[in-house]
Each structure stands twice: as C-alpha cells, then as structure tokens.
TrEMBL record, chain A:
Record region (Disordered): 636-668, 697-722
Protein name, entry field: AP complex subunit beta
Intracellular or extracellular location(s): Endomembrane system
Stated family: Belongs to the adaptor complexes large subunit family.
GO MF annotation list: clathrin binding
Organism: Naumovozyma castellii (Yeast)
Pfam families: Adaptin_N
Automatic annotation (TrEMBL), chain B:
Entry keyword Transport: yes
Main location: membrane
Gene: NCAS0E02140
Gene Ontology terms: cellular component: AP-1 adaptor complex; cytosol; endosome
Origin organism lineage: Eukaryota, Fungi, Dikarya, Ascomycota, Saccharomycotina
Keyword annotations of the record: Cytoplasmic vesicle, Membrane, Protein transport, Transport
Subcellular location: Cytoplasmic vesicle membrane
Coiled coil: none
Pfam families: Adap_comp_sub, Clat_adaptor_s
Species whose genome carries this gene: Naumovozyma castellii (Yeast)
Domain MHD, chain residue ranges per copy: 206-479
Protein's name according to its UniProt entry: MHD domain-containing protein
UniProt keyword annotation of RNA-binding present: no
Gene Ontology BP annotations: endosome to plasma membrane protein transport; Golgi to endosome transport; Golgi to plasma membrane protein transport; Golgi to vacuole transport; retrograde transport, endosome to Golgi
C-alpha cells in the first residue's frame, strides 16, 4: 500500500483530469452526432440540447456549421431554434454568422411572415459591416411588406442598423422609409417607428428632426392611441409628452383626448398619460383644471394598488408632482398609510409623502397622522423607525402650533425613554429641530435638556456625526439646563480627534461660546486641537478666526457678539427642488432619473458603444476567418485530448495531431463549403490553402492551444497569427 | 501659434452648429431595457436575453454582489440599483429574480416594471409556475417568448392568448400543449389589428360569458374598533366562451355611468354633484372611483358616453377593477384581549363576530393571531372551528369554515413563556390578520344590470352568468396596542 499522501495525490490527479474533459468532449460529440442524424426529430432534439448547453454558458460555437445545416427546413419550429442559436452568437462570434448570411437573405423572402421577421431581426443584429451590406434589399422589402407584423419588426431594424453602422444606414436611405412609417395605417407600426426614431435621435440628434416629426404627427398619434397595444400606447404617449401645444385650445384638446387612458389597467400607461397631462396643464385655462385635477388625483391613488415596485416609482413621482401641485392629493392622506406587509422601500417613501401631504391647516388630519407616525416609530425595522422619527419632527414643524409641537415632543421623549439605543440619534436630531423651530419656548428646551443631561456618556450613545453635533449645539444653546455641562464637554473634547467635521465644528463653537462658563484651559486646549490636530479645513479656519478674535483687545465684546446671534427659526425641514430642477423632473416622470431625482438632461448624454464590430474585412476574408475559427476549435478539442492521454511521449505526437487535425479540418471545410454559395463555387486551391494553413498551425500546436481562449474571443488576434 | 488656432477653432464649433435642429431637447421617448435576465435566488443568471449591445456582457455578474452588499448593510433594498452607469431594475417571483438592465437613466422605469410583471404573467401561462426549476426545464420556449414580447428593448406583444397561437413549443409543465398544425405557426392576422387580442375564428357550441365580481376589503383597525383606513378593491373578471367577434356591453349600477345623461353638468360643479349623490343613493346607485379597464374596453367611448363596451379576449381575463375608499364597518370583527404575564405565560381571548346580514355566511374564515417567538405549550378553548399553532410563523390560526351573519364565536388560548431571559425586546409588532370570503355579496353594492352580447355576423343566443363575492384583501388587520 503506498503512503496516504501519494494515494490522495493520485486520487486528486485522476479526478481532476477526467471529470470535466470526458463530459465536455463527450457531450459535444454526442450533440454533433445528433445534429447530423438522419432522423428529423433527433436533429431537433439535438438543437434544443445545444441551446440548453449554450444557456448554461458552455461554448458550443464549434457546432455552428452543424447547426446551420438544419436551417434550411420547412419545420418552422426547427428554424426558430436555429435562429435562436445564431442570434446568441451574433454578439460574441459575429464572424461565424457570415456562414448563415445566404439563408437570411432567402428567408427574408419567405412566404411566412414569421420567418421574414426572424431573418431580418437576426440580420440586423450581426456586427459585421460587410454582412450589413447584404441587408439592404431585405430591409427595404420588409419595410414595405404587406404584413404589418413584418413592418413593425422592420422599422426597429432600422434603429439597430443605425447603431451598428450609421453611415450605411443614412446611405441606404432607410431613414426616409422609417419617417414615412409614421403615416402607416397600422398603429403598432406607427408606435415602433416612433420608438425607433427616438432611439436614432438619441444616438445622433443631427440626423433626423424628431421634434418636427412629432409636431406634424400629433393627430396621427392621438388617433392611433385608441387602437394599439398597451406598450405602443406608452410609446405614443411618450412622443406626445415631447410635444408642446401651440395654444391653450390645442393643449386642452390633447388633455381631453388622452384622459381616458388614465383608466388603463397598465400602471405604466397611466403614468405616461399623467406625464402628458402635466406637460399640457400649465397651458390651459385654470377654470377647466378642476376636473382634470380630480382625475389625476384618482389616477395617482390607483397606482397605490399596483405591485410594490410600481408603487415605488409612483411614490417617487408623486413626490415630484406634489411639489408642483401641492393640493392634488390633499383628500387622500389615508391611502398612503403603511400596510404591514409593504416592503421597506415602499414604507419609507410613504412616510415622506405623508408628511408632505398633510394639510397644516387641518388639526384633525395632523393629529391623526401623529398617532399613526407614533405607531410607526415603535416598529422594529431601523430604517423605517428612523424615518418615522424624522417625520414626527417634520410634522410638528409643519403644523407649528405650540401645543402640537409639545405633543410631538412628548412622543419623542417617550420614545427616548424606551431605552432603545438605535433610535436615540434620530430622536436627538428631531428634538433639536423642534427647538430650532420654537426657540422662544423655554419649557420645551428644559424638558429636552433635562432628559439629554441624564445620559452619562452621550458620545457613546449617539453614533452619527449629525446627532453628536446637535447634542453639543444644544449644550451651547441652553447651558443653564445642563447641570453637568463641564463633565459632558470634557468627554467630547477628549474625543475631539475622533469626531467628524460637524461635531468638531460644533465643539469648537460651543466651547468658544461658553468660554466664561468653562475652565480657561479647555478653551485653550480646544483651540489648539482645532488648529493643529484636525484635517478639516473649515474647522481649522474657524478656530484661527476665533483665536484671533480672542487675542484682540476687546475680545470679550467681540466673541459675545459673534456667539449671541440667534439662529433663524426654521420653518421647514422638508427639502425642496429648485424650480429649474422641478420643471426638468416633471418632464421625465416615469423614468429612472425620476426615481433618483436626477434629471437626465443635466448629465452627459448616453454614449453609444460599439462592441465587437468587425470592420473593414472582405467577405472572403471573413469566410476564411469563420472557417479557421471552427477548425481551430476542432483542432483544439482533439489536441487537448491527446495532451491528456500521454505523459511522456511528446516526440511522436506531432504527426498524430497533424494527421488527425487535417482530416478533421478537411471534413469541416467540406461542410462549410457546402454552406457557401456566394456565387462562385469554392476552388480546390482554397481548400488547399486552408489545409496548408492548418499545417502551419498544427506545427505550432503548443502555442496554439495556449492561445485558445483568446482565439475564440478575438478574431483580431487570430488574423495576426497568420 | 498652432495650438492657439486650434483652440479658437474648437470654441467656434458650438457656435457654428447652432442651427435650430440642435436646439431640440435630447430627451428620449421610450428607452427600454438593454437586456432581461432570469436569476436564481442569489442573483446568479439562469437565462439571459440581450436586446442590445450597449451594456457589457459582464454587467449581470455584478448583480449578486450588489444585492448581497446592500443586504448586509441594510434591510432597505429598493427595486432599482445603480452601478457603474448601469441601471438594474428587478422584481422577485417565487425563487427567481427578473432583472432588466438599462444603460441610461432615461429608461422608463414604470414601463420596465410593468413589462417584467407581464412577462411573469405570460410565462405563467406557459409553464404553470415560474420558478428556477421550470425555467431550467424550458429554456427554449422562454427564449422564444422573450424574442416575441420584446424587440430591441421595446415591448411588443404580450397577449398570451395570441402568443399561444404561434409560439407552440411544448413546455414541460404544460399539461395540454396547444394543438399543433405542422408549419402552420404564423403570426395570427389579428395580432396587428386594432383588436390585437382576439382572432376571428373562435367557435363554441354553447355561447356563454361568466362574470365574477370580486371585492377585496382592506381595513386597518385598532384594538378598540376604530377604523384607521378602509378601502374596497373590486375586480370584474370575465370568462368568455363566445364565438366570432362578439361586441359586449356591460351595464352596472354606477352613479357616474348611469346618471350621466341626467346631470351632465354636475361634474363641473361640486355642489351639484354632492346633491345628486344623495338622490342617487335612494336609487341604489353607487359611485366607483379609479375605474381601470382592460385593453379591450373602448376607453374613449367610456370617457365620452360612460358606456362600457368591448370585444373580449377569449377565455379568462380581468375586465376592470375599481377602488372605493368609503368608510365601511368591519365585516368580521374580533374583540382581542391579550395579556402577557412576563416570564410565565400569555393569555389570548378573542371574540369574533360576523357583522354581516343574517342570510349571508362568511366562509373559510381564518383569524391569524401573532404570539411571541419563544412561547410554547399552547392550550386552546374554543366553541367553533379549529385552532392550530404554527411555530414557524409564530402565530396561532383559528379557522372557521362557515360563519353565519350575526353570530358570535369566541376562543381563548394560553401559552407558556420561558421564565428566563426575555429582556424587553423590540420585535415587529405584528397585527392580527383576518381572512374570509363572503359569497353572493358585495360590500359596495355594485350590481350588474345587464350584459348585452351581440355578434353581428353569427347572431347567436348567448348566456351571461354573474357571481358576486366579497373577500378579505391582503391587509385586513387589527393593530394590537
């Protein structure tokens, strides 16, 4: 018995080697056999299995020629499968698709519209510019097809073509066809043409004049709107929201014509309709607005019974709309009450809307919301609770009545006393905000301070920078209510270096402000810390300034003047958009940018990336490329196999490989040549050429196999190799 | 000198290109997703369809890390994530994520989510359930559907009934595959017609239409019986088994729909509309809010004439839904009394009352009462139904199969609490949830007055059927204090 470690080694060696390769090679061979089987059903199954492997990220590109042989079939299901396969490799192995180009051209004339569509759709996805040239005739023909199903596919192909090769697209003149598709009798074609045009406009705004096009087709759009699929409606509504009405009459007309779509079951249609209405609303006379507003309101409310993700988008958009039309949902507060099974991201947004929505002149509503918020602040999800506590303060500041503020403060105090550390930060900030709102109310201040004073280690209890900053600020503002002021300040000063900028600043200001109440050494110490030990420039500058002031003759007076200024009473803690931002956001309702409140028009326009486009190669060259790639793959399969089998007999190997790969390659070549009928039949010299290529390659088989991964991914490399 | 000249030239360019065309705002109408992925519960891709190549192939590989990184930090995971200029929008269904990636912020998020939901719906019709296993078993058909439902990121056709006519791959879960005529798979003529949801050659021996009116009640109550929020969400579902291209007209007792011709002006005048609503109540008409209609309903006709007319798709579909936020009293009310004797036991008393008409009966009533996680050894006393303790969910469920109107049932439960530990902990305060169904009854009082079926060519006799049911919505709860 050999020693254990050797046994383990041997075991590992065997298992590592054998497992992947056998299955890999075996499966490919098996699939290949299936693909060329004489029984149609077996072939079809093999194609399905190949697609399965492809989905599992296995490289089955070597089967390309075998799959293609199954393309010319009357069985439409099988044809679809082949197209699926081809489409998948259209992206990663564009050069392989050249092998199928002939079939594409034929299929684009098939009597079955489904096949015509598949052909044109696939063709326009292949990133080889020479192939794109073959697209001209099929694309033109399908753009004028009798069948609207084909036309609606073809109009999108124009945008795809444009992305792949703008110049060619312009040269072919299909853009004109695309523009005239806006007048198509079929609404789906109109919608897709619109989408396609807007895509093109997005890639290059100078090619077509989208705005004028939309302008001249408004009536067509409004007509088509009632007759097309939900998705087409969204596109058309999108186009309408780009259009600025000429006068109030037209704006009113547009509103009237689209309003019906507020009642569509698809929430995205509803949101697109809302966008069109909001765009036109400022143009119309105010007297007619009441009814429209009512309808908008109920449409917004209805979005709250859509799936959570949709609610999330809706809530973000409601936030934007509310800022423009604050009264729009004033009667619908309860709709935004939190449901216990709402996901967290919806809950948090709902609180935001609730606080914004509540009518500050309506005590009953505010009181109701207060109890509701109190309920939320006793939940357990920290993010939600934190938002609810902030919401409480915002509510108090919004309603502003002193008794109400007192009530809110009581609630907050109660919360703090529940002795749950995680909420103390938010409570501290919220209470300080309330005090900033009613600075003259000493009673409130006393309550807050006496509670906060009871914390023996505020620096350990509070975790965030802004909470600590608020705590220190409070001490500076109401030193009389902090019996243990000096001890508390000591703690903060001791940890000065570890604090973040807001707290450092706050400590500095407070110490300066209270320098007469605190020992002089502390002032000196803090000024030193703030000038020498901090990395925060603002803090350092501030400290310098104070230091100068303090060293002047009338320092006492000066510092008092500096510190005595009473901060302005805060009226509102709800953030607002700037008017420009708001207008931009209103035009982008429903988009991702409306979720982040970052209008797209502010940012750099999206860059179009062309990946993997094979350019500037002749079609023969591409054919060779394709052949070579498959051959090399075929070779490598075999090579690896041989490597595996032998451990020491490298000397004899070369011949074997050469033999094997040549024959292998030959059979491939023959296969491939069957597929090509670009006019001239392949001459024997071409084959010979191929074979000689192969010989060269198999001589350098070692380098080849190392380069294998690169080969398959990058054709450029491949070319250089020759 | 050279550089300077260049600079000047450069700065001159924007001025030069100042033709009216360039002033067009470059906003985008409907940018959609660049790719759609099905991912497993961890976020690793199972299947992908890339519609455009403007995102790197590796983009999806970041998704699982994005998810797990975020989940580590917080519970707050929004349905859209942004990374490296890529926008990931996703929904969850069973154990899979459906992820759409867009490379621009101007992608229409609402449309993407709506599409993903629709996609689940379509796939559900083909695969029965959409889950990891069924996706793995049905790659081919999913690819086909993905190609048909979306092209270049623009949603196309999502009507399952129509798709089934030309996407006929057998799926593994599908019990009865669509009848397959060899090589007959062509896009149905109707697909691009204005009636894109129905083909003309449907035939039935007996022509019937079934209407189901289902109202779901969402209600949030306090333990004292105060109602914090209540709403009725109604759905009208239709099962159409009608030949040809029938035109249907539905009449319901909605105030807005019926009184339209009587008080045309009332809509413009708040006062008048309030006045008319009181008179209408006598006539037993109700006012539905937020009506939402299926694709097939002629919306503009409804908008102008308040008539619901449509050519239905074949088979089952949801014709319309509506919402009412009128305050209603609880249909099933539970008087809860919970006493926690810390470190020894918890006592629960519950008196349930069916506050509905005597002749109605609530069925399948479930009262789901939360109990502390560490409670054990439950003891129950009850007069009706059955009680079960479900430790996985930390609840006890009281089931009452049949609960006649006006009756009152009660139960009490006692559970032991561990004597040690149990420091005042802050757990989710879960509400009591109640589920029920009340057949032959609608809370809003909605009634179908008529359903006229007219097939102009075939002129057959047809039979409309109506059924009403009220049930609890997903949020019929009593908040415990």
């Amino acid at each position: 018995m050999p020693p254990l470690d050797k046994r383990i080694k041997k075991f590992l060696k065997n298992s590592i080697r054998v497992a992947p390769k056998i299955s890999d090679k075996g499966e490919l061979a098996e699939l290949r056999a299936g693909l060329v089987s004489q029984y149609p059903q077996t072939r079809k199954d093999a194609i399905k299995k190949t697609i399965q492997q492809m989905t599992l990220n296995k490289d089955v590109s070597t089967l390309f020629p075998d799959i293609l042989k199954n393309m010319a079939t009357n069985d439409i299901e099988q044809k679809k499968l082949v197209y699926l396969y081809v489409m998948n490799y259209a992206e990663t192995h564009p050069e392989l698709c050249i092998l199928a180009v002939n079939t594409f051209v034929t299929d684009a004339q098939d009597p079955n519209p489904l096949i015509r569509c598949m052909a044109i759709r696939t063709m326009s996805m292949i990133r080889v510019d020479k192939i794109l040239e073959y697209i001209e005739t099929p694309l033109r023909r399908t753009l004028q097809d009798d069948n609207p199903y084909v036309r609606k596919t073809a109009v999108i192909c124009v945008a795809k073509l444009f992305q792949l090769n703008k110049d060619l697209c312009i040269e072919l003149g299909v853009l004109e066809d695309l523009q005239s598709a806006l007048d198509d009798s079929n609404p789906m074609v109109v919608a897709n043409a619109t989408a396609s045009l807007s895509e093109i406009n997005d890639m290059d705004p100078n090619v077509i004049d989208l705005k004028t096009l939309i302008q001249s087709h408004v009536s067509q759009f409004l007509m088509a709107l009632n007759e097309c699929t939900e998705w087409a409606r969204i596109t058309i509504l999108g186009a309408l929201s780009e259009y600025s009405a000429k006068d109030s009459l037209e704006a009113q007309d547009i509103i009237d014509r689209v309003t019906a779509h507020l009642q569509h079951v698809n929430p995205a249609v509803v949101l697109a309709t809302i966008k069109v209405i909001i765009k036109n609303l400022p143009e119309v006379e105010i007297s007619a607005n009441g009814l429209t507003m009512k309808k908008l309101s109920s449409a917004l409310v209805s979005l709250m019974s859509s799936p959570s993700e949709m609610q999330y988008v809706a809530l973000k958009n409601i936030r934007i709309i509310l800022e423009k039309y604050p009264e729009i949902l004033s009667k619908e507060l309860r709709i935004f009450y939190i449901k216990f099974n709402d996901p967290l991201y919806v809950k948090v947004e709902k609180i935001d809307i609730l606080v914004r929505l509540v009518d500050p002149t309506n005590l009953k509503q505010c009181a109701l919301l207060l109890t509701e918020m109190k309920e939320y602040s006793m939940e357990f999800e920290p993010e939600f609770v934190s938002r609810a506590i902030q919401g409480l303060a915002q509510l108090g500041i919004k309603y502003s009545d002193e008794r109400f503020v007192q009530k809110i403060l009581d609630t907050l105090l109660e919360l703090v006393e529940r002795d749950q550390d995680s909420i103390k930060d938010d409570c501290c900030i919220s209470m300080c905000n309330l005090l900033r709102h009613s600075p003259s109310n000493e009673k409130l201040a006393e309550q807050v301070c006496s509670l906060l004073n009871s914390w023996s280690e505020p620096d350990a209890i509070l975790r965030t920078d802004s909470a600590k900053c608020n705590y220190v600020w409070l001490m500076g503002q109401y030193p009389q209510f902090f019996p243990s002021l000096q001890a508390k300040m000591d703690i903060f000063v001791k940890l000065f270096k570890q604090e973040e900028s807001l707290t450092q600043m706050s400590i500095l200001i407070t110490v300066v402000k209270l320098h007469s109440k605190l020992p002089g050494t502390m002032l000196q110490h803090v000024l030193e810390l703030a000038t020498q030990e901090t990395n925060e420039l603002d803090v350092r500058d501030m400290a310098m300034m104070y230091w100068r002031c303090l060293s002047m003759d009338n320092s006492e007076q000066l510092v008092n003047d500096l510190c005595k200024t009473i901060p302005p009473q805060i009226e509102n803690t709800l953030d607002k958009f700037s008017p420009e931002l708001l207008e931009k956001l209103l035009l982008e309702l429903g988009t991702i940018s409306s979720i982040y409140f970052k209008p797209q028009s502010d940012r750099r326009r999206r860059t179009i990336t062309y990946q993997n486009i094979v350019k500037g190669k002749h079609i023969d060259e591409l054919q060779d490329l394709a052949k070579n790639e498959i051959e090399s793959k075929g070779n490598n399969d075999v090579l690896l196999d041989f490597d595996d089998d032998d451990d020491n007999g490298e000397g004899d190997d070369d011949d074997d490989i050469e033999m094997n790969s040549t024959s292998n390659g030959n059979s491939h070549l023959a296969d491939l040549d069957d597929l090509f009928d670009f006019g001239t039949a392949p001459t024997t010299s071409e084959i010979n050429n191929g074979v000689s290529n192969l010989n060269i390659r198999s001589d350098s088989s070692n380098t080849q196999s190392q380069n294998n991964p690169k080969l398959s991914s990058n054709t450029q490399d491949l070319l250089e190799l020759f | 000198m050279k550089t300077r000249h260049l600079k000047l030239f450069n700065s001159y360019v924007p001025y030069q290109s100042e033709n009216p065309r360039n002033l067009v705002t470059n906003k985008v109408i409907s940018i959609m997703a660049s790719a759609v992925y099905f991912c497993d519960s961890k976020g690793y891709p199972l299947l992908a369809r890339r519609y455009r190549d403007d995102i790197p192939i590796s983009a999806i590989e970041k998704f699982p890390t994005l998810l797990s990184d975020l989940e580590e930090e917080t519970n707050l995971v929004p349905p859209c994530l942004s990374y490296n200029g890529m926008q990931y929008l996703f929904i969850q269904h069973n154990d899979v994520y459906l992820v759409a990636i867009a490379n621009s912020m101007s992608a229409n998020a609402a449309q993407i989510f709506a599409f993903l939901y629709k996609l689940v719906d379509v796939l559900g019709n083909y695969l029965k359930t959409v889950e990891e296993e069924s996706i793995r078993d049905n790659f081919v058909i999913i690819y086909e559907l993905l190609d048909e439902t979306m092209d270049y990121g623009i949603p196309q056709i999502t009507e399952t009934k129509m798709l089934k006519q030309y996407i006929t791959q057998k799926s593994f879960k599908l019990v009865k595959a669509a009848k397959k005529k060899r090589n007959a798979a062509r896009p149905p003529e109707a697909l691009t017609n204005s009636v894109s949801w129905r083909s003309a050659d449907i035939k039935y021996k007996k022509n019937e239409a079934f209407l189901d009116i289902i109202e779901s009640i969402n209600m949030l109550m306090t333990q004292k019986g105060q109602i914090l929020r209540s709403e009725i969400i109604g759905e009208v579902k239709v099962k159409s088994r009608l030949s040809g291209m029938p035109d249907l007209k539905l009449g319901i007792n909605d105030k807005g729909i019926f009184s339209k011709h009587m008080d045309d002006d009332s809509l413009n005048n708040e006062g008048a509309s309030v006045a008319s609503s009181t008179t209408d109540k006598k006539k037993n008409n109700i006012e539905l809010e937020d009506l939402k209609f299926h694709q097939c309903v002629r919306l503009s006709k409804f908008e102008t004439e308040k008539i619901i007319t449509f050519i239905p798709p074949d088979g089952d579909f949801e014709l319309m839904n509506y919402r009412l936020s009128t305050s209603i009293k609880p249909l099933i009310w539970c008087d809860m009394n919970i006493q926690v004797h810390s470190q020894s036991r918890i006592e629960i008393h519950c008196r349930a009352k069916a506050q509905i008409k005597k002749k109605s009966t609530a069925t399948n009533v479930q009262i789901i009462i939360p109990v502390p996680e560490d409670a054990d050894t439950p003891e129950f006393k009850y007069s009706h139904g059955s009680i079960k303790y479900v430790p996985e969910k930390n609840v006890i469920i009281w089931k009452i199969r049949s609960f006649p109107g006006g009756k009152e049932y009660s139960m009490s439960a006692q559970m032991q609490l561990p004597s040690i530990g149990n420091i005042e902990e802050h757990k989710a305060k879960r509400p009591v949830q109640i589920k029920f169904q009340i057949p032959y009854f609608t809370t809003s009082g909605i009634q179908v007055k008529y359903l006229k079926i007219n097939e102009p060519k075939l002129q057959y006799k047809s039979y409309p059927w109506v059924r009403y049911i009220t049930q609890s919505g997903d949020d019929y709860t009593i908040r415990l204090t």
